[in-house]
Fold these 2 entries.
Entry 1:
Amino acid sequence: MSKPVICYGEALWDCLPEGLFFGGAPINVARHLRRLGVEARPVSALGEDFLGEEARERLKEDGLATDLVPAHRDLQTGTVNVRIDSDGNATYTIAEPVAWDRIPVDERVLATAAEADAIVYGTLAQRGRHNRQAIRRLLELRGPFKIYDVNLRPPFDDLDLVAELAQPADLLKVNEEELYRLLPADSKDLSLENAARELARTTGVSRVCVTRAEKGAAFLEKENWITAAGRPVEVRDTVGAGDGFLAAFTANYLTGRHAAGDVLNNACRFGEFIASRSGAVPAYAAADWLLGRA
């Protein structure tokens, strides 16, 4: 894959009991993609503060360009207080307004994205008017494969906005709870496969990837329904596990060289690995997660 993947959205610090961890869903995806040998270009914003400077250094250490991540004087770098329960599940308190609430999509961003292989985007970064208007310009581009990681974070989980953001997507990634939440109330008794097919029908998106935590994942690729079972791991925390899954899935799927079932199974193993470690981007050997290279 010679073209870059644009990762648009929030850049922030997760404040966990163990300390501060830099990320944000699209940034985590970008960092993993870069480690997996894919050129990733984060599009976000930071504050002119200590956390912003440290975040910029972390991006550079990961080999990521920061020219599409400007600094705002009047807005602080984003933070999220994360609480982990006894089962390793996370809840989030997200500060606002912060720098990533004002991500510019200017001609430089558009020119870079026009040459990209894919655009990865989510819901949270669109909580304010500025970004909702900005991302429309990005998603109007023809050519890049558009991956919408729904990733609902209350209270920023407007389902009307989700429906709008899904329209230009080529692939939707949801977890099982999100899948059923996005369907009408009378759809709650549908099987997982039929629920995914119903979401594909209502959104017009023919590819729907459903993560299921310890139960694995499933993928509707047009008419084909593919499943991958989960494997037991000792969970440290679930922060970033879905981001790792998406990065591994994207890195292998976009090559077009691998069967979708192999891509899905590999992404499950990677997500489980992330959940077994502290933080969203732990150390690992890239070759272990690239299909055909291990």
Note: The mean pLDDT is 94.
Entry 2:
Amino acid sequence: MVSPPLGYALMLLAVPLSAIILFSFWTQNFMDVDTTFTLNNYREIITEPIYFALLKRSLFVSGTVTCVTVLLAFPVAYFVSFHVPAHRKSLWLFLITIPFWTSYLIRVFLWKVILGYNGVVNTGLINLGIIDEPLTFILYNINAVIITLAHAFAPFAILPIFVALEKIDRSLLEASQDLGESKVSTFFRVTLPLSMPGLVAAVLIVFIPTIGDYVTPELMGGAGGKLIANMIQTQFLALNNAPLGAALAIVAMICVTAVSLLFVFLNRRYLRGRS
């Protein structure tokens, strides 16, 4: 019974990944692919400063988006789990998932309208007399990319945190307060450690996809907001240099894996210190 899902996983995950790894050790001259083993693509990535700069910017943007999204998602999930009556939780979850009803691309374009030079934000602030000229730092830069990605991935962070909070035995919270702990100390000593599985899931679910997103940086980032995914797309589609694009993808995956494992390791140390 394991063979069908195993074959499915190999076909859709292992085979494409193996092809990307193999391609990264080849070279390409327009339409001609040289299958001779070489490390030139990785040497170029190491020696060219632009690739390191894009990778560093991508990690910064993904990390910032993850922190903002999780910090904003936790209060929402906590409120729905602990303060919304049981018969209304389904309605709240339904409202949280409303952004999934529309295309991701449409949501990006909507933020472009909201943050634009003559968009909703600038027009509203000018009409209120708060500013005299439209703000230019909220579009076509990293700020716009972070805002758009944080909104797009908010439901992905809320739902796993909510599930983890729902699994917490409420009697443990009552016991903590019966033993003299305040609500604040109960949250930090009981609720937060028990909700860590949901927090870890939310962090990984947001961090890993955002570093590979190229639509939002392409539409919202401008020249100064491009990320490593945009360079990978350019290598594959515009410059006809798939091996270099594959090598960039492998390097990006290695960095994401390293950061994710480091986060999981630090989280385990935190939980051990609390136990």
Note: The first strand starts at residue 27 and ends at 29.
